[in-house]
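User: New here, please read:
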Amino acid sequence: MNDNLIDTATMPKVGRQMGSNPAGVYQDKDGRRFYVKSLESPAHARNEFIAAKLYQLAGAPTLTYVRAKELNQIATEFVDLDKKHVSRLSAGERRQAQRWFGVHAWTANWDAAGFDGDNQGVVDGVVMTLDVGGALEFRAQGDPKGKAFGASVCELDSLRKNADNPHAVRLFADMSPVEINDAIAVVMRIPDASIRKVVAENRGSIALAEKMIARKADMAKRVT
């Protein structure tokens, strides 16, 4: 590896693609494995990396993201999952997943549950989002969201009610008003300065940072 960046050109491929993007599991000289996927553009990869850092800023469990040498690639430390699918979560695990509903809505992660329900997994008893590529400015398949990613957090409703996203509805529809308020409070606790810092440190724009702050303010209006 060069300067601690994941360089797939120097690493053997030891596992197959597991999502819709070209990808594989690669192993470094120390035996550590990484799942590396190639996206349509560096902008798309940067978008996902920033989204992951915002999730982590909120305390929401994600895979461990590491930087790749190729700017259009995303790399995460490979983990063996105990479970993978919304339908396999226990009642307690569903409550864990619902705690981060506000983070999904804030980041406009339409793919929070996964197209096939496979974007929520369990590792050592912790429920985590396995791929945040559907957050912020791009859809999971790479198309720009455009005006659909604005200052109004419509996802507080759509993630619970949109029939075109059945696995998200299955996961979030039964949340009570108190549980929704608690999930929003997770985002409300994030300082604006921390949002600006995370976005700037990961080569995001000032406009993106200000939009995330505006979306946080819009969520505050929804607290009942």
